[in-house]
Design a protein that fits this description.
Layout: H1 2-16, H2 20-39, E1 45-49, E2 56-65, E3 74-76, H3 77-83, E4 92-97, H4 104-131, E5 137-146, E6 149-153, E7 158-161, E8 177-188, E9 191-197, H5 201-211, H6 213-217, E10 220-228, E11 232-239, H7 246-251, H8 256-264, E12 269-274, H9 279-286, E13 294-298, E14 303-308, H10 313-317, H11 322-331, E15 334-339, H12 340-346, E16 361-363, E17 366-369, E18 372-375, E19 378-379, H13 412-418
Parallel strand pairs: 2-3, 7-9, 11-12, 14-15
Antiparallel strand pairs: 1-2, 2-4, 5-6, 5-8, 6-7, 8-9, 10-11, 13-14, 16-17, 17-18, 18-19
Helix pairs in contact: 2-4, 5-8, 9-11
Length: 419
Amino acid sequence: MKNELLEALTILEQEKNISKDTLIEAIENSLVTACKNHFGKSDNVTVDMDPETCEYHVYQAKTVVEEVTDPVLEVSLAKAKMIDSKYEIGDTVNFEIKSQEFGRIATQNAKNVILQKIREEERKVLFSEYYSKEKDIVTGIVQRYIGRNVSINLGKVDAILTENEQVRGEVFQPTERIKLYILEVKSTPKGPKILVSRTHPDLVKRLFESEVTEVKDGIVEIKSIAREAGSRTKIAVYSNDPDVDAVGACVGMNGARVNAIVNELRGEKIDIINWNENPAMLIENALSPAKVISVIADAEEKSAKVVVPDYQLSLAIGKEGQNARLAARLTGFKIDIKSETQAREAGDFMDYENDYEDEEYYEDEEYYEDGEYYEDGEYTEDGEYADGEYAEDGEYAEEEYADGEYAEGEYADEYADEK
């Protein structure tokens, strides 16, 4: 019997991941409960169990008295002396109890105590196991639809994928394997309750960590992520190693890495951009694939004004405003996008610093530089004209300098001799 008990405890420890010490404690408590059911009291009962051999003994301590009033707690002096002549009144004598003497009800109650303890410990183990996976991804097998929710088997426990956490349009088949993000793990009397998601932005982040070695190792860092589940995701990545291209590492050879994630997300588009500490540069990258003329970002107000070419306006805004909306979430800035024509009509296009470079501006043969103005060959400084019209001093600017020198570099006195 002892060997069978030891073997049973060993199997339970392996299968249920419940420690043998916990099981031994459960058996000891069950024996005490059996004594209480059998004798009516258990205050004077102790259980001695060897964890190595599972050999156990149950003892009932009784006080030696002259006259017994409670046979459960007391023993007569005459009976005590029959056991050992050294006993005197007031001493305590331990009587061993054989579990075989227990009645059917006491035995059944002891069994229930053991089973209840095993179930409690099993729930604790499962809760601890999945609580450690909270905010991480797991692979589950679709079991069935419960109303609009989906029951997912995670191996040792079932999880619930609620309607709100499902991607619109996704339909699952029984036994289908899917990746899930664990939102929350709750402890309940019936075991751990696990809520999972297919729409959470961190699902994409965890998929990149599992697919891209550089992200898992921390060489490439995902700085920000914005997602509209089932449609499009934008992520901003940064490389901590100057020799590693962050975007290239995430895309992989011929797009292998990002395509594996896209397939898992069932065709959801993923835009990967470079992170930049400069808000203007980050916003420009975030609006990709649209091209940007200029960006003015107000870091304090968390707002930005963006000008794009006329033909890029619809691309920058995206279908139903999606591209601009995701860019705003990704950067944390409120983004106001205008086309070049709209910006000019509003009169604020000249305020955009990206339209200038060293205070110069070129358009339609016009040239501004340090207060000088050229247009159609005219030059309005010092009253001279570049098209051959007379200057104020009567000399041609095309042939001569204002000080009397030829434009080719000849002096005015040589010109005078020819005259």
